[in-house]
Amino acid sequence: MRRAMWMAFLVMTLALGQAVSAQSPAPAGARTVIVSTTTSTQDSGLLDVLVPLFEQQTGYSVKTISVGTGQALALAARGEADVTLAHAPAVEKKYVAEGKMHNRRLVMYNDFLLIGPESGPAKIRGDKHVVAALKKIAEAGARFVSRGDKSGTHVLEQSLWKTAGVTPAAPWYIESGPGMGATLGIANDRQAYTLSDRATLLAFSRRVDLKPMVEGDRLLLNIYSVMEVNPANGPRVNTAGGKAFADFMLAPETQAVIKAFGVDKYGQPLFVPIAGKKDEDF
After folding, report:
1. pLDDT reported for residue 39
2. Cα dihedral angle (131, 132, 136, 137), rounded to 10 degrees?
3. 141 contact partners, CB below 8 Å, separation of at least 6
4. Cβ(224)–Cβ(107) under 8 Å?
C-alpha cells in the first residue's frame, strides 16, 4: 500500500514538473546576443547608436565584446559569441572556409589613414602611396606605433610593411596592443606615426593632435563584414539571435542610420553603407 502511494506521488510530481517546464519562459541567454566586434565600431560611437535600436526592435539584449578583429573571430570560433562584426577580409574568409563562421556579408566601409605629428620627421605628408611612405618612415627611423594585436588594422599594417620590404623593429617601432583608441593616445604622446581608421581618428580628434599624412590610396580601403557563428562551435551559441543581429545590420533602415552617422558632428559620415555589395565590387 505504502509503495503504491509513493509511486502515485512520484508520477504526480513528474507530471507537475513537466507542466511547469512547458510553461516556463526560454532561458535568459536565449534573449541575449553576444556580438564580438572590432574596437573601431565601439570607439567611433557607432554601436552606441545601433545597439539600442536593435534591442528596441527585437526585444533582444546585446552584450558587445570590443577587441581586435583577430580576437573577435577567435571568440566566435570558440562559441563565445553569436555574431561577429569585423574588418579583416582575408582573415574572415579563412574562418568561413574552415566552417567556423558563415553567411559573411558586407556592411559598410571607411578608410585607413597613415597619420603622424605636424613636425613630420619622415617628410611624408601629402604622399599618395602608403607603401612608399612607410619606407621613408623606416629609413628615417621615425617612431611608429603599431597595435600589435592581430586586429584588422594590425593585419593590414603587417601586409603593408611586407609589401614595402621592411621588417619594422625597435627602437623606432613600438607595439601598443590595447586597441585603436589607446594606440592613438600612445602615438600622440610619443609624437609617432600610426595607422588608424578614419572613424576612430575623427572620434578622437579633440584628444589627439596627429594629422593625416597619407590617404586615398586604394590599399587603405577598410571594409566591414558581419558573420554568423556556426552553432557547432559551442553549446551556448544563440543562432537565432546572431542571425537577427546580422540581418539588422543589413536592413535598409539600419544602413540609413550608418550613412548619416557622424555627419552632424564631423561634417562627414564615418562609414559608408554597402549592403548587397560583394568583395569583387571593390
Report:
1. 87
2. -20
3. 172
4. yes
Q: Where are any strands of DSSP class E within 42-89?
A: 61-67, 83-86
Domains of the chain: 29-110+222-281 (3.40.190.10), 111-220 (3.40.190.10)
pLDDT band, residue 8 (cuts 50/70/90): very low
In the structure grid, which three cell numbers stand for residue 262, read together? Answer: 557622424
- Strand runs labelled E in the chain: 32-38, 61-67, 83-86, 101-116, 144-146, 173-175, 193-197, 211-214, 221-229, 272-273
Of the ranges 16-20, 65-69, 260-264, which is most confident? 260-264
> Contact at 8 Å (CB) between 106 and 274?
yes
Q: Facing residues of 223 across strands?
A: 109
pLDDT value, residue 2: 38
By C-alpha distance, which of 268, 120, 107 is closest to 202? 268
